[in-house]
Amino acid sequence: MRRIGILCFLFFSLTSLFSVELVLINKTETPLFEVYAVPADTENWGYDKLPFDVILPGDYVVLEVELDEEKPINFRFVDEDGDLYLKYNVDISSRRKILILPEDHQLLSSEGLIRFTLVNKTGSVIRALYISSETEDEWGDNLLDEFLLESGEMILDLQTSGRSSFYDIRLELAGESIVKKRVFISDRARVLLTLH
């Protein structure tokens, strides 16, 4: 009988380690219809955590999710127009209130482009730059065209690719090619390119 009690205690203790209660507060001016919460190292968003609920502007919901609170979490919220609000690498070990703010809104142009700033910190001249969604197998065209990117920055437009905000980047330097995997790129982002 004592073994059963110990096993039950261990089972409930272990399952509660991964069950986290979060308060999601909508500080935007639009209702949020979908909520996704996944570990930051996860490659896809999984399923909607609030399939039958809406977070109205100025309102909140308490969400219980099974996540490891010691690991950073990525959040994705979808409003009534299908626009995205994204929060990346949120530390839920120190705070349980998550504010969804207007600045979390990911703006897309009417052509489905995101505009971001590329900063060259490699110490070398970048001769070619290729960016593809992490789900694609091909690199596509050189985004620098016939330009070179020396130490400094350049504003680029990138065609969005479905539901992913993570991209692979290939840099062509003098005599070497470097690939950066799973780089987050959003509208108005600054992407720092280094050799490491």
Automatic annotation (TrEMBL):
Top-rank lineage group of the source organism: Bacteria
Protein name in UniProt: Uncharacterized protein
Source lineage: Bacteria, Pseudomonadati, Spirochaetota, Spirochaetia, Spirochaetales
